[in-house]
Design a protein that fits this description.
single chain, mainly alpha, 4 helices, 68% helix, 0% strand, elongated
Length: 149
């Protein structure tokens, strides 16, 4: 493999990782937004469905990120072995392995996902309390004296 192709693969894999992190953050921000703007009582069945959907998302996203980081680690190991073959560009040598804190991120990944999942599950379980829409919630309309609402 040509060193420049390897550098392109590393760049593409970093884009995949970035996209997965963006999706991860946007899902959690949307859950927080749902809790803050929800005006009706969320039933137990709806919360159960949301928990199942979130659980599926969390497992798939975590395994994808683990795979992405493992692949990036393999690419970086190959680039480190090939580093002498990469000629310096404009007098600057490329230190591929030195720019990443890959081991630290891979060790922290399970804890980060567990913390986010705990927060999200707690938020989904207590969504009616957070949004202020208990049984006597904001969406409940009391009958009036024949006036049309």
């Amino acid at each position: 493999m040509v060193p420049y192709d390897l550098l392109e693969l590393i760049s593409d894999e970093r884009d995949h990782i970035y996209n997965h992190w963006t999706f991860f953050v946007s899902i959690h921000l949307s859950l927080i937004g749902l809790a803050l703007i929800s005006r009706r009582h969320i039933t137990i069945f709806e919360r159960f469905i949301a928990l199942l959907a979130y659980g599926g998302f969390a497992v798939m996203n975590f395994t994808a990120q683990e795979g992405n980081y493992a692949y990036l680690d393999a690419l970086l190991a190959q680039a480190s072995a090939m580093e002498d073959a990469i000629p310096p560009a404009n007098g600057v040598a490329i230190d591929v392995k030195g720019f990443f804190y890959l081991d630290e991120v891979r060790q922290a990944l399970p804890y980060l996902y567990a913390t986010a999942a705990s927060f999200s599950v707690l938020l989904l379980l207590l969504i009616n309390v957070v949004s202020g829409s208990q049984k006597q919630g904001r969406d409940r309309v009391e009958p009036t004296d024949g006036a049309v609402l």
